[in-house]
Design goal:
It is a single chain. The chain has 107 residues and is mostly helical. Helix content is 41%, strand content 9%. It is built from five helices and two strands; from the N terminus they run E-H-E-H-H-H-H. A two-stranded antiparallel ribbon has the order 1-2.
Amino acid sequence: RSAIETIEHIFPQSPEPGGAWDGKLKKHQRLESHVHRIGNLILLPQPLNEEARRQGFAAKKNIYAMSEGLRMVKEVMREKDWRQHEIEKREKKIIAWAKTAWVDLPD
């Protein structure tokens, strides 16, 4: 297995029409405005990222379980579903962490 980490989009970049992700965003919400948000991204080894692709969230969680316990993945796996609310909630948590962790960086 490769040690190289790649960026996984939890809510996929191009979900299959009629697939597991249909209806997860409200009709007025644009996919592009949510899919690349930091709250929707995790690091995964390349083989797992390729396997996860456009799978539904439940299937992705099973794949994520093989990531050898990365903390960021465990947090995502605790969610029951993955919609705009979960993306935004996770993004706020990451931003709060960054502000604390990098408080000594100049503006």
